[in-house]
Design brief:
Shape: globular
Family: Belongs to the DXR family.
Largest sheet: 7 strands, parallel
Number of domains: 2
EC number: 1.1.1.267
Bound molecules: nicotinamide-adenine-dinucleotide, magnesium ion
Distance between the termini: 58 Å
Pfam families: DXP_redisom_C (PF08436), DXP_reductoisom (PF02670), DXPR_C (PF13288)
CATH architecture of the largest domain: Orthogonal Bundle
Number of strands: 11
Strand content: 5-15%
Structural class: alpha/beta
Order of helices and strands: EHEHEHEHEHEHEHEHHHEEEHHHHHHH
Keywords: Isomerase, Isoprene biosynthesis, Magnesium, Manganese, Metal-binding, NADP, Oxidoreductase
CATH superfamily of the largest domain: RNA polymerase sigma factor, region 2, helix turn helix motif
GO molecular function: 1-deoxy-D-xylulose-5-phosphate reductoisomerase activity; isomerase activity; manganese ion binding; NADPH binding
Length: about 400
């Protein structure tokens, strides 16, 4: 029986993870911790269904509601960031890190310290603190398995290979909701329009990040951090069908592509069964019916986020933490209708200009304290930039 925990259990990745756990033969998994946010009914229902040891909501003001919902179940209830850290420190064999945003970093670090296998959907952890997370995991003997579909694809293409023989990594992108919009219309894009993805069913924030390409920007940085590959070898390619998830090019000119349906249960299932492979209930592709795969280069003018990612990959240090925090604030401001769609990239660029070039940050080591400080400063600067943009 494998002991598992799911951080962000009520979200899109979390629910897909629990779907696979529920389908496994009885007695395969023993659920330690499940965590969520404001959706107490779902968190409590899943904690009961899987007989979890503990359920944690991110929000202290929801603790009473969670206790009530769990009354008589024997499941412990807890709330807040400290409770999330404590739950992550509980011994488990496998931990899914699927909280959205920088809030996922600390639970992931705690889980890595226990030596658990860390299934990492929270790409922000690698963007903000890649070297710290990787070194923490290495020191504790914890294996990190990427759950982002593109990175799972690269990971699978690299089994048995020497990373030193990799010439290029191609991360595909659907192009998002506005890939075919006329450029001049982008400024008018609404939250509702940006929240609908052509191929993938995901949480709202990552769906909007797909429309703006900030998701791919995060993924380029994530690939550099996770695989330790030089920025100039990593590229993004628009592939509207979302069936080829990534390609790895080797020094002999060969390209290994990973092909599969746009269903996150593949990448989650790969991480769940690793190092073995096990059955995953995703659609089997009928390639003759599909007929063709198409690719095109991403247009720089449509997707300014990609150039910002390149700058962060080259700069390194704490610029990833600054980039991510600025992006999170700009995204929240867009969702709250305080700024327009194109202003998100403008805000992030201004914050990078103002914050990431500061000498104290540029030369700082990537410790948790320094990441927190860079994150805080970037959010403050983003808030000021957004306030000026609105005024
Ligand atoms: P989601 O919004 O559907 O779910 C997020 C989860 O995090 C929920 O359980 C929510 O309650 C919890 N949460 C939100 N804010 C929190 C906070 N401050 N503290 C603690 N918990 C909090 O998001 P998602 O789409 O499942 O994405 C989760 C992560 O996986 C993200 O990092 C995303 O980039 C990554 N990812 C998602 C997909 C996908 O298909 N959805 C694909 C690849 C990578
Ligand atoms: Mg992805």
């Amino acid at each position: 029986m494998r002991r598992i925990s799911v951080f962000g259990a009520t979200g899109s990745i979390g629910r897909n993870t629990l779907d696979l756990v529920a389908r496994a033969p009885r007695g395969s998994y023993d659920v330690v911790a499940l965590t969520g946010g404001a959706n107490i009914a779902r968190l409590a229902a899943d904690a009961r269904r899987f007989n979890a040891e503990i359920a944690v909501t991110a929000y202290p003001e929801k603790l009473d509601a969670l206790r009530d919902a769990l009354a008589g179940s024997g499941v412990e209830a807890a709330a807040g960031p400290e409770a999330l850290r404590e739950a992550a420190a509980r011994p488990a064999d496998w931990v899914m890190s699927a909280i959205v945003g920088a809030a996922g970093l600390e639970p992931g670090l705690e889980a890595a310290k226990t030596g658990a296998t860390l299934a990492l959907a929270n790409k922000e952890s690698l963007v903000c603190a890649g070297p710290l997370l990787i070194e923490t995991a290495r020191a504790a003997g914890s294996t990190i398995l990427p759950v982002d579909s593109e990175h799972s694809a690269v990971f699978q293409a690299l089994v048995g290979e020497d990373v030193a023989r990799v010439e290029r990594l191609i991360i595909t992108a659907s192009g998002g909701a506005f890939r075919d919009w006329p450029l001049e219309k982008l400024a008018t894009a609404t939250v509702a329009q940006a929240s609908s993805h052509p191929n993938w069913d995901m949480g709202q924030r990552i769906t909007i990040d797909s429309a703006s390409m900030f998701n791919k920007a995060l993924e380029l940085i994530e690939a550099k951090e996770f695989f330790g590959i030089a920025p100039e070898k990593i590229e993004a390619l628009v592939h509207p069908e979302s069936l080829v998830h990534a390609l790895v090019g080797f020094c002999d000119g060969g390209l290994m592509a990973h092909v599969g349906p746009p269903d996150m249960r593949h990448a989650i299932g790969y991480a769940l069964h690793w190092p073995d492979r096990g059955p995953v209930p995703v659609e089997r592709l009928d390639l003759a019916a599909i007929g063709r795969f198409t690719f095109r280069a991403p247009e720089a003018a449509r997707y300014p986020a990609l150039a910002l990612a390149r700058r962060v990959m080259e700069q390194g240090g704490l610029s990833g933490a600054v980039f991510n925090a600025a992006k999170e604030e700009a995204l929240t401001a867009f969702i709250e209708n305080r700024i327009g769609f194109l202003q998100m990239a403008e805000v992030v660029e201004r914050v990078l200009d103002a914050v990431s070039a500061r000498e104290d940050l540029e030369n700082a080591v990537i410790s948790l304290d320094n990441v927190r400080a860079a994150d805080h400063l970037a959010r403050q600067t983003a808030a000021e930039t957004i306030a000026r943009a609105v005024a």
